[in-house]
Design brief:
This protein is an alpha+beta fold. The chain has three helices and seven strands, in the order ααββββαβββ. The protein has one domain (about 5-120): Electron Transport, Fmn-binding Protein, Chain A (Pnp Oxidase, Chain A), CATH 2.30.110.10. It has a seven-stranded antiparallel sheet. The N and C termini lie far apart (about 35 Å).
Amino acid sequence: MESVDLLKLWAEPALFTEKEALFLCQSQMARVATVSADGQPHVVPVAIEFDGRYLYFSGRALAKSLKFRHLTRNDKVALVIDDVVSIRPWYVRGIEIRGTAELLVEKGHPYVRITPLRKASWGL
């Protein structure tokens, strides 16, 4: 049996199914979770973009935000993107993504690029 390097496997970007990718392309909002240096979680809504591989978010005064400060110390991040399709019958769909965040700047504006490493979806 071939051995698997679990650390290398964890570092490989998650691949999305066609339905997951379509859902992410159509979605505009997510909840992003970061963690402080002492382990305190922080969750906030963000506007997202998806290019087929990475997710991005920015925001007004991003560099002054708590999530940005957290990401300067710990690049681990989690997102949930979901919606309610129908109440009767109850039908929800979504995807949870765990990965790493890179803090980038373009034309003087900071933004975050998320590399998805793990994913779990439902209703898609």
